[in-house]
Amino acid sequence: MTLRLYDLCGADPKLRFSPYCWRVKLALRHKGISVETVPTPFTAVPEIGGGGFPTVPVLELEDGKTRIVESFAIAEYLEETFPDRPALFSPGPAGRASARFMDGFANMTFAALAFPLIAKDIHAHLTEADQVYFRQSREKRLGKTLEEAAAGRENKLGEFRKTLAPVRHVLRSSPYLGGESPLYVDFILAGALTWATTISDYPILGDEAEISDWLKRVTQGETALA
């Protein structure tokens, strides 16, 4: 058996948009590890492996029984299991610490600001059953309707793009956030940006040439990962 990755999808099974799944797919490609992706709608996640997994990605190992959940845990598994392949973290504790920092930034800053702006667009791409689940769970989280969250979003781009200033700063002196070659710190943010630009037409990046060019370098050939 090969590795299997349960990968969040929309009503179109080819539409894969989870930022966390994208991180893992980029990490697998970086390591040169083949994987079978399994398109998984929101409402099918509880059925993975007979139940017990609240979210994706879930990586199922070759034995068909062992499963690893949570993107950072999967990245650490890949690094420890395939040390002879290209590294995901720079050497020493600082490498994983910097990736943890980016993980926090992507989740607590980037996604926290971006999600209300594109949640309505995510909803539009889901199956009917997923739409019901998504609206109920996300409106509870937001404390407002998806439509209310998106209201006036065209006026919020400036504030959102300010959060990417540290990324621009690094990319002015380095081709990747990880240095001369991409590392998991790159894949974390690339996953978040791919999520936002795949599921929504909202111009998250606009004319951000430095970040757009970096994203293309990191995700080059990403269509083969679906």
Automatic annotation (TrEMBL):
Q: GO CC terms for this protein?
A: cytoplasm
For this protein, the record's InterPro entries field holds: Glutathione-S-Trfase_C_sf (IPR036282), Glutathione_S-Trfase (IPR040079), Glutathione_S-Trfase_N (IPR004045), GST_Omega/HSP26 (IPR050983), GST_UstS-like_C (IPR054416), Thioredoxin-like_sf (IPR036249)
- What Gene3D superfamilies would the database entry show? 1.20.1050.10, Glutaredoxin
Q: Which residues form the GST N-terminal domain?
A: 8-86
Q: Which PANTHER family match?
A: GLUTATHIONE S-TRANSFERASE OMEGA (PTHR43968:SF6), PTHR43968
- Full protein name: Beta-aryl ether cleaving enzyme
- What is the organism lineage in this UniProt record? Bacteria, Pseudomonadati, Pseudomonadota, Alphaproteobacteria, Hyphomicrobiales
